[in-house]
Structures are given as structure tokens and as C-alpha cells.
Write a structure and sequence with these properties.
By secondary structure, the protein is mainly alpha-helical. The chain is built from eight helices and no strands. Its main location: membrane.
Length: 185
């Protein structure tokens, strides 16, 4: 695999420090989800038809911070592997994986405002699908060069993204075309 991906030094320095590595996704998650608490108590969200298996809303503020910490630490493991990689193919995989890491962070950051604030369930589903695909591929790219260490931290995130995409897809499917949801909160 040949890749000419260039990452600015700042994007490599952030995950080099384990504190900033876990802090960045945690802060972005808090900012992105800041309007979620009021939205889930609002009329629009309460009126949504949801697919089977949706956990109580109290689960989400427990699960997401753990996933943010875990993905952040995986980025630390990956950049440490990049720093010691000698093979151009390994360096290429890790560099592309780190570029995808920042891509998935952006997609993750965008999802809550799309779904909860803009009430764009379909656009949020597209975002969620891209987020899951990007994260799965990133996990694959990190796996071998990190000796599977990053995979241990990313598998729960991959599993949760699969579940979250199912929930988002189910909500979109069950509520498409409903006019009674257009009432403002």
C-alpha cells in the first residue's frame, strides 16, 4: 500500500501525549453532545418511534465518555507505533489510519447536532454509516502495526457504532414521513 497522506505535526503531537490523546475526543464529545440532554427530554424525541433494543437514555452518558477515552488511547497507541515503524508500508498504514481517526472524530462530532439539534435523522444516519465504516477501516489499519493493542481499545467503539447505526436507521425507517413529529419543542 502506497500512501502520500500528510498529517500536520499538531495532529501527530496530540496523540503522542496520552492525556491529550484521551482529552481531545472527550472534550469534542462533551461539546458535540451539549444540547442532547434537553433534546431527549423534548417533545420531538419523546414522540419518535424507536426500534427494539434502545437502552434507557441514562446509559448513553456513561457509555460515550468511556468510548471517547478508549478511542483516544487507541490513537496514542497508533502514533507510538508510527514513531517506531521502520517499514514504509507500516508507516503508510498508520498515517492513513490516523487521518481516518481525525475523520471519524469529525463525523462523530457532527452526529449529535445533526440528529438532536437539526432533527435530521436521515442525514444523521448517513453520518453514522460513514462514521462506522471509517472506524472499522481505521481499526483494521491499526491492528497489525500496533500488535492488536489498538484493536482492544477500538472494538467496543466499533460494536457500539454498529448498534448506534441500527438505532439511527430504525428511527429513520419507523418515522419517515410522519407529520406529527414536525411540532416544535
Amino acid at each position: 500500500m502506497s500512501s502520500n497522506i500528510y498529517l500536520p505535526q499538531i495532529l501527530l503531537n496530540i496523540p503522542r501525549n496520552p492525556v491529550t490523546a484521551v482529552g481531545l475526543p472527550l472534550v469534542l464529545g462533551i461539546v458535540s453532545g451539549s444540547g442532547t440532554a434537553s433534546a431527549v427530554r423534548g417533545q420531538w424525541y419523546r414522540n419518535l418511534w424507536v426500534p427494539p433494543g434502545r437502552p434507557p437514555r441514562q446509559v448513553f452518558p456513561i457509555v460515550w465518555p468511556l468510548l471517547y477515552l478508549s478511542m483516544g488511547y487507541a490513537s496514542h497507541v497508533a502514533v507510538k507505533a508510527l514513531d517506531s515503524a521502520l517499514s514504509p508500508a507500516t508507516r503508510s498504514s498508520l498515517t492513513l489510519g490516523l487521518a481516518l481517526y481525525y475523520t471519524q472524530l469529525s463525523l462523530n462530532f457532527t452526529w449529535s447536532p445533526l440528529f438532536f439539534n437539526a432533527k435530521q435523522v436521515g442525514l444523521a444516519l448517513i453520518d453514522s454509516t460513514l462514521l462506522a465504516g471509517t472506524t472499522f477501516y481505521m481499526t483494521k489499519l491499526f491492528h497489525e502495526p500496533t500488535g492488536s493493542k489498538s484493536t482492544i481499545f477500538l472494538l467496543p467503539y466499533c460494536a457500539w457504532l454498529t448498534f448506534a447505526t441500527y438505532l439511527n436507521g430504525g428511527i429513520w425507517w419507523l418515522n419517515r414521513g410522519r407529520r406529527d413529529l414536525s411540532k416544535e419543542d
